[in-house]
Amino acid sequence: MNAALPPAVAKELPWPADEFEARLRARESGYHIHHAFNRRLNSGALAPFQVRGWVANRFYYQQAIPMKDAAVMSNCDDRETRRRWALRLLDHDGHDDFEGANAGGIEVWTQLGLAVGLTREDLWSQRHVQPGVRFAVDAYVNFARRSCWQEGVISSLTEMFAPKIHADRLAGWPSHYPWIDASGLAYFRNRIPLAQRDVEHGLEVAHSWCDTRTRQDRALAILQFKLDVLWTMLDAVERAYPDDLAEELRP
């Protein structure tokens, strides 16, 4: 039907829902699963100090996620959305007695840090966090604070691509890095079903809010921004922990 319209008019019409979602999912090509550092990490090519450096820097992102989610909630005037979104804070900060399965993602990531040979102080002091990582993560949190809640939700849609990266780690790390206590890999296992749940909600919001081509284009730009945040983090880590520093630098 759109083919019969003048090109200028057709260009302004929103894409059908399936095409819009396909365009969102096509951005996977820019996901940090394809970054050279991640490919080396998941293929077993990194030295222990490099794995520790990645875990310590990624922790800065992990502890910022509930702050980002709280910022999204603070801008949201829809109670039902807040009720669903609040689960994300609890996923990371923990809930109830904060023990075992209730500990939350930040604590589970801390267990990963311990499993690779870091201490709680290494993680929580942030002394190993690289400036590029700090800048990228802070930019993401500030985006959520300044943007409307729908845009904040859309920025989380990199979760569409997360199950694969977690599954790769679960499949490869036990053999590639036998020195890592397997109990430390629980974060990756836990996040796969949670990411799938979060994507379902995020796509609902994206399809509802992006009812014009302008908003659809904006959603693609927001998703690209978040992909750039994740990619920039790995750029910074890769520069900080090169192979030739293996005997000089230890987190």
What does this structure look like?
The chain has helices at residues 7-12, 17-26, 36-43, 48-74, 79-93, 105-116, 120-124, 131-146, 149-155, 162-176, 186-209, 213-240. It is mainly α and 251 residues long. It has twelve helices and no strands. It has one domain (16-242): Up-down Bundle (Heme Oxygenase, Chain A). 69% of the residues lie in helices and 0% in strands.
What is the architecture at the second tier of CATH?
Up-down Bundle
Low-confidence segments, ≥5 residues, pLDDT <50?
A: none
The main sheet comes to:
none
What is the assigned CATH homologous superfamily?
A: Heme oxygenase-like
Distance between the amino and carboxyl termini: 60 Å
**Share of helical residues:** 55-70%
Structural category: mainly alpha
Overall, the morphology is: globular
